[in-house]
Amino acid sequence: MAPKVLISDKLSPAAVQIFKDRGIEVDFQPDLGKDKEKLAEIIGNYDGLAIRSATRVTPTILDNASNLKVIGRAGIGTDNIDKDAASKKGVIVMNTPFGNMITTAEHAIAMMFAVARQIPEASQSTHAGKWEKSKFMGTELTGKTLGVIGAGNIGGIVCDRARGLKMKVLAFDPFLSTEKANKMGVEKVELDDLIKRADFITLHVPKTEQTANMITAERIAAMKPGVRIINCARGGLVDEVALAEALKSGHVAGAAFDVFAEEPAKENPLFNLPNVVVTPHLGAATTEAQENVALQVADQMANYLLTGA
Ligand code: MLT
Questions:
Q1: CA atoms of 10 and 7, how far apart (whole Å)
Q2: What's the pTM?
Q3: Cα 293 to averaged position of ligand 1 atoms, centre (Å)
Q4: Residue among 53, 154, 290 whose CB has most ligand 1 atoms within 8 A, to mutate
Q5: % of the chain residues with pLDDT over 90
Q6: Average pLDDT, stretch 41-59?
Q7: Do 4-97+287-307 and 101-278 fold alike per CATH?
Q8: What is the CATH number of domain 4-97+287-307?
Q9: CATH for the 101-278 domain, from 3.40.630.30, 3.40.50.620, 3.40.50.720, 2.60.40.10
Q10: Do residues 162 and 184 make contact, with C-beta atoms less than 8 angstroms apart?
Q11: Ligand 1 in contact with 52 (CB < 6 A)?
Protein backbone atom coordinates (compact mmCIF):
# COMPACT_ATOMS: atom_id res chain seq x y z
CA MET A 1 0.00 0.00 0.00
CA ALA A 2 1.26 3.50 -0.86
CA PRO A 3 2.42 5.55 2.16
CA LYS A 4 0.16 8.46 3.15
CA VAL A 5 1.35 11.94 4.00
CA LEU A 6 -0.59 14.74 5.65
CA ILE A 7 0.42 18.36 4.97
CA SER A 8 -1.09 20.40 7.81
CA ASP A 9 0.46 23.84 7.10
CA LYS A 10 0.61 26.27 4.19
CA LEU A 11 3.28 24.52 2.13
CA SER A 12 3.88 25.38 -1.52
CA PRO A 13 1.78 23.12 -3.80
CA ALA A 14 5.09 22.01 -5.31
CA ALA A 15 5.39 19.63 -2.35
CA VAL A 16 2.04 18.01 -3.17
CA GLN A 17 3.22 17.32 -6.71
CA ILE A 18 6.49 15.76 -5.54
CA PHE A 19 4.65 13.35 -3.24
CA LYS A 20 2.23 12.43 -6.02
CA ASP A 21 5.03 11.96 -8.55
CA ARG A 22 6.75 9.60 -6.13
CA GLY A 23 3.58 7.51 -5.71
CA ILE A 24 2.74 8.78 -2.22
CA GLU A 25 -0.84 9.55 -1.27
CA VAL A 26 -1.06 13.12 -0.05
CA ASP A 27 -3.68 14.97 1.93
CA PHE A 28 -3.21 18.77 1.73
CA GLN A 29 -5.02 20.47 4.63
CA PRO A 30 -3.11 23.75 5.03
CA ASP A 31 -5.19 25.10 7.92
CA LEU A 32 -5.34 21.93 9.98
CA GLY A 33 -2.25 22.85 12.00
CA LYS A 34 -4.33 25.33 13.98
CA ASP A 35 -6.87 22.67 14.98
CA LYS A 36 -5.09 20.46 17.55
CA GLU A 37 -8.13 18.27 18.28
CA LYS A 38 -8.81 17.48 14.61
CA LEU A 39 -5.14 16.78 13.99
CA ALA A 40 -5.00 14.39 16.97
CA GLU A 41 -8.14 12.68 15.65
CA ILE A 42 -6.82 11.96 12.15
CA ILE A 43 -3.03 11.71 12.54
CA GLY A 44 -3.27 7.93 13.05
CA ASN A 45 -4.07 7.56 9.32
CA TYR A 46 -0.72 8.87 8.11
CA ASP A 47 2.85 7.66 7.68
CA GLY A 48 4.26 11.16 7.26
CA LEU A 49 3.43 14.66 8.49
CA ALA A 50 4.77 17.69 6.60
CA ILE A 51 4.59 21.03 8.44
CA ARG A 52 5.88 24.58 8.66
CA SER A 53 5.64 26.49 11.94
CA ALA A 54 1.90 26.68 12.65
CA THR A 55 1.46 22.99 13.51
CA ARG A 56 2.62 22.12 17.02
CA VAL A 57 3.52 18.47 17.29
CA THR A 58 2.81 17.77 20.95
CA PRO A 59 3.03 14.50 22.93
CA THR A 60 -0.78 14.18 22.56
CA ILE A 61 -0.53 14.34 18.76
CA LEU A 62 2.27 11.78 18.86
CA ASP A 63 0.32 9.48 21.20
CA ASN A 64 -2.34 9.30 18.50
CA ALA A 65 0.14 8.88 15.64
CA SER A 66 0.06 5.10 15.50
CA ASN A 67 1.44 4.83 11.93
CA LEU A 68 3.66 7.90 11.81
CA LYS A 69 7.23 7.34 10.68
CA VAL A 70 8.47 10.80 9.77
CA ILE A 71 7.78 14.47 10.48
CA GLY A 72 9.21 16.86 7.89
CA ARG A 73 9.65 20.53 8.82
CA ALA A 74 9.76 22.77 5.74
CA GLY A 75 12.16 25.24 7.32
CA ILE A 76 14.96 25.23 9.83
CA GLY A 77 13.65 25.44 13.39
CA THR A 78 12.10 22.28 14.83
CA ASP A 79 11.08 23.93 18.10
CA ASN A 80 7.39 23.35 17.28
CA ILE A 81 7.97 19.59 17.46
CA ASP A 82 8.36 17.69 20.73
CA LYS A 83 11.48 15.85 19.62
CA ASP A 84 11.81 13.75 22.79
CA ALA A 85 8.28 12.42 22.38
CA ALA A 86 8.93 11.79 18.66
CA SER A 87 12.14 9.94 19.34
CA LYS A 88 10.48 7.79 22.06
CA LYS A 89 7.95 6.77 19.41
CA GLY A 90 10.65 6.09 16.83
CA VAL A 91 9.43 8.94 14.59
CA ILE A 92 12.17 10.63 12.58
CA VAL A 93 12.20 14.45 12.55
CA MET A 94 13.79 16.11 9.52
CA ASN A 95 14.20 19.76 8.54
CA THR A 96 15.50 21.66 5.50
CA PRO A 97 18.49 23.62 6.79
CA PHE A 98 19.45 25.23 3.47
CA GLY A 99 16.27 26.14 1.56
CA ASN A 100 15.55 29.47 3.26
CA MET A 101 18.96 30.59 4.47
CA ILE A 102 19.51 33.29 1.81
CA THR A 103 16.02 34.69 2.29
CA THR A 104 16.43 34.85 6.08
CA ALA A 105 19.86 36.47 5.82
CA GLU A 106 18.41 39.03 3.40
CA HIS A 107 15.64 39.82 5.88
CA ALA A 108 18.22 40.49 8.59
CA ILE A 109 20.10 42.86 6.26
CA ALA A 110 16.82 44.56 5.30
CA MET A 111 15.98 44.99 8.99
CA MET A 112 19.45 46.45 9.63
CA PHE A 113 18.90 49.07 6.92
CA ALA A 114 15.35 49.73 8.15
CA VAL A 115 16.51 50.42 11.69
CA ALA A 116 19.57 52.43 10.59
CA ARG A 117 17.41 54.79 8.54
CA GLN A 118 14.07 54.52 10.42
CA ILE A 119 12.42 53.55 7.16
CA PRO A 120 9.09 52.24 8.55
CA GLU A 121 8.47 55.36 10.65
CA ALA A 122 9.54 57.68 7.85
CA SER A 123 7.28 55.84 5.44
CA GLN A 124 4.30 56.05 7.80
CA SER A 125 4.89 59.77 8.38
CA THR A 126 5.19 60.45 4.65
CA HIS A 127 1.98 58.51 3.94
CA ALA A 128 0.32 60.75 6.54
CA GLY A 129 1.36 63.80 4.50
CA LYS A 130 3.74 65.13 7.17
CA TRP A 131 6.99 65.47 5.17
CA GLU A 132 9.14 65.35 8.34
CA LYS A 133 12.48 65.60 6.55
CA SER A 134 14.54 66.68 9.55
CA LYS A 135 13.05 64.14 11.98
CA PHE A 136 14.60 61.03 10.47
CA MET A 137 18.36 61.37 10.79
CA GLY A 138 19.95 57.98 10.15
CA THR A 139 23.34 56.36 10.46
CA GLU A 140 25.60 54.97 7.71
CA LEU A 141 26.50 51.29 7.68
CA THR A 142 29.82 51.70 5.87
CA GLY A 143 32.70 51.45 8.34
CA LYS A 144 30.44 50.40 11.22
CA THR A 145 31.07 47.24 13.22
CA LEU A 146 28.53 44.45 12.92
CA GLY A 147 28.56 41.73 15.58
CA VAL A 148 27.17 38.46 14.21
CA ILE A 149 26.16 35.97 16.89
CA GLY A 150 26.15 32.58 15.18
CA ALA A 151 28.06 32.36 11.90
CA GLY A 152 26.51 29.17 10.51
CA ASN A 153 24.43 28.89 7.34
CA ILE A 154 22.41 32.10 7.79
CA GLY A 155 24.92 34.06 9.90
CA GLY A 156 27.64 33.20 7.37
CA ILE A 157 25.61 34.77 4.55
CA VAL A 158 24.93 37.84 6.71
CA CYS A 159 28.72 38.15 7.28
CA ASP A 160 29.31 38.00 3.53
CA ARG A 161 26.64 40.60 2.70
CA ALA A 162 27.87 42.90 5.48
CA ARG A 163 31.44 42.69 4.16
CA GLY A 164 29.99 43.73 0.79
CA LEU A 165 28.49 46.76 2.55
CA LYS A 166 32.00 47.65 3.80
CA MET A 167 31.20 46.88 7.42
CA LYS A 168 33.75 45.46 9.84
CA VAL A 169 32.39 42.10 10.95
CA LEU A 170 32.95 40.41 14.32
CA ALA A 171 31.66 36.86 14.65
CA PHE A 172 30.93 34.89 17.78
CA ASP A 173 30.47 31.21 17.08
CA PRO A 174 32.06 28.37 19.06
CA PHE A 175 32.01 26.23 15.89
CA LEU A 176 33.84 28.79 13.74
CA SER A 177 37.59 28.15 13.34
CA THR A 178 40.00 31.08 13.16
CA GLU A 179 41.08 29.81 9.73
CA LYS A 180 37.48 29.88 8.41
CA ALA A 181 36.90 33.31 9.99
CA ASN A 182 40.00 34.61 8.21
CA LYS A 183 38.74 33.21 4.90
CA MET A 184 35.38 34.92 5.50
CA GLY A 185 37.12 38.21 6.24
CA VAL A 186 35.64 38.41 9.74
CA GLU A 187 37.21 38.58 13.18
CA LYS A 188 36.38 35.66 15.47
CA VAL A 189 35.69 37.00 18.97
CA GLU A 190 34.21 35.97 22.29
CA LEU A 191 30.61 37.00 22.95
CA ASP A 192 31.42 39.62 25.58
CA ASP A 193 34.02 41.21 23.30
CA LEU A 194 31.44 41.41 20.48
CA ILE A 195 28.90 42.89 22.89
CA LYS A 196 31.30 45.71 23.86
CA ARG A 197 32.53 46.56 20.36
CA ALA A 198 29.61 46.28 17.95
CA ASP A 199 27.53 49.16 16.55
CA PHE A 200 24.98 46.67 15.23
CA ILE A 201 24.35 43.20 16.66
CA THR A 202 22.48 40.48 14.78
CA LEU A 203 21.54 37.04 16.10
CA HIS A 204 21.65 33.83 14.06
CA VAL A 205 21.52 30.98 16.55
CA PRO A 206 18.80 28.44 17.30
CA LYS A 207 16.98 28.64 20.62
CA THR A 208 18.46 26.00 22.89
CA GLU A 209 19.11 25.71 26.64
CA GLN A 210 22.46 27.41 26.03
CA THR A 211 21.18 30.30 23.93
CA ALA A 212 17.82 31.09 25.60
CA ASN A 213 17.98 34.59 27.08
CA MET A 214 21.67 34.88 26.11
CA ILE A 215 21.27 38.65 25.64
CA THR A 216 20.58 39.46 29.27
CA ALA A 217 20.02 42.86 30.91
CA GLU A 218 23.72 42.81 31.94
CA ARG A 219 24.87 42.18 28.40
CA ILE A 220 22.61 44.93 27.07
CA ALA A 221 24.08 47.31 29.66
CA ALA A 222 27.60 46.34 28.49
CA MET A 223 26.79 47.24 24.85
CA LYS A 224 28.06 50.43 23.21
CA PRO A 225 25.66 53.35 23.73
CA GLY A 226 23.72 53.78 20.50
CA VAL A 227 23.89 50.10 19.54
CA ARG A 228 21.15 48.67 17.29
CA ILE A 229 20.02 45.05 17.70
CA ILE A 230 18.51 42.80 15.04
CA ASN A 231 16.87 39.44 15.75
CA CYS A 232 15.60 37.35 12.86
CA ALA A 233 16.54 34.04 14.51
CA ARG A 234 14.30 32.97 17.39
CA GLY A 235 12.28 34.73 20.06
CA GLY A 236 13.54 34.31 23.60
CA LEU A 237 17.23 34.88 22.81
CA VAL A 238 17.03 38.48 24.04
CA ASP A 239 15.51 39.70 27.31
CA GLU A 240 12.70 41.74 25.73
CA VAL A 241 11.79 43.64 28.92
CA ALA A 242 15.41 44.70 29.51
CA LEU A 243 15.75 45.70 25.86
CA ALA A 244 12.57 47.80 26.03
CA GLU A 245 14.02 49.63 29.07
CA ALA A 246 17.32 50.21 27.27
CA LEU A 247 15.46 51.58 24.24
CA LYS A 248 13.45 53.94 26.44
CA SER A 249 16.61 55.20 28.17
CA GLY A 250 18.29 55.72 24.78
CA HIS A 251 21.19 53.35 25.59
CA VAL A 252 20.03 51.19 22.67
CA ALA A 253 19.26 53.37 19.63
CA GLY A 254 17.07 50.89 17.78
CA ALA A 255 15.94 47.32 17.41
CA ALA A 256 14.59 45.29 14.52
CA PHE A 257 12.83 42.10 15.54
CA ASP A 258 11.17 39.45 13.38
CA VAL A 259 10.77 36.92 16.19
CA PHE A 260 9.34 37.15 19.70
CA ALA A 261 9.33 35.16 22.93
CA GLU A 262 5.59 34.52 22.45
CA GLU A 263 4.28 33.92 18.93
CA PRO A 264 1.97 34.87 17.37
CA ALA A 265 2.91 38.12 19.14
CA LYS A 266 -0.24 40.12 19.77
CA GLU A 267 1.47 42.26 22.40
CA ASN A 268 5.09 42.61 23.34
CA PRO A 269 7.27 44.94 25.46
CA LEU A 270 8.95 46.13 22.23
CA PHE A 271 5.75 47.10 20.45
CA ASN A 272 5.08 50.80 19.84
CA LEU A 273 8.50 52.03 20.97
CA PRO A 274 10.21 54.55 18.70
CA ASN A 275 12.76 53.12 16.30
CA VAL A 276 11.71 49.54 16.84
CA VAL A 277 11.00 47.79 13.55
CA VAL A 278 8.89 44.65 13.87
CA THR A 279 7.74 42.02 11.38
CA PRO A 280 5.62 38.89 11.99
CA HIS A 281 8.26 36.13 11.63
CA LEU A 282 8.80 36.83 7.94
CA GLY A 283 12.43 35.65 7.84
CA ALA A 284 11.69 32.80 5.44
CA ALA A 285 8.78 34.45 3.65
CA THR A 286 9.77 34.70 0.02
CA THR A 287 8.32 32.70 -2.85
CA GLU A 288 11.80 31.36 -3.61
CA ALA A 289 12.48 30.12 -0.08
CA GLN A 290 9.03 28.58 0.35
CA GLU A 291 9.37 26.74 -2.96
CA ASN A 292 12.84 25.50 -1.95
CA VAL A 293 11.83 24.23 1.49
CA ALA A 294 8.65 22.59 0.17
CA LEU A 295 10.54 20.75 -2.58
CA GLN A 296 13.30 19.72 -0.21
CA VAL A 297 11.05 18.46 2.56
CA ALA A 298 8.87 16.49 0.15
CA ASP A 299 11.89 14.93 -1.51
CA GLN A 300 13.52 13.97 1.81
CA MET A 301 10.29 12.54 3.23
CA ALA A 302 9.54 10.60 0.06
CA ASN A 303 13.05 9.08 0.12
CA TYR A 304 12.60 8.06 3.74
CA LEU A 305 9.13 6.60 3.31
CA LEU A 306 10.00 4.72 0.12
CA THR A 307 13.54 3.55 0.84
CA GLY A 308 14.17 4.20 4.54
CA ALA A 309 17.06 6.51 3.59
C1 MLT B 1 12.64 28.55 10.06
O2 MLT B 1 12.90 28.03 11.14
O3 MLT B 1 12.78 27.95 9.00
C4 MLT B 1 12.17 29.95 10.01
O5 MLT B 1 12.09 30.53 11.25
C6 MLT B 1 10.97 30.14 9.18
C7 MLT B 1 9.65 29.71 9.73
O8 MLT B 1 9.55 29.17 10.82
O9 MLT B 1 8.65 29.92 9.05
A1: 8
A2: 0.94
A3: 10
A4: 53
A5: 99
A6: 97
A7: yes
A8: 3.40.50.720
A9: 3.40.50.720
A10: no
A11: yes
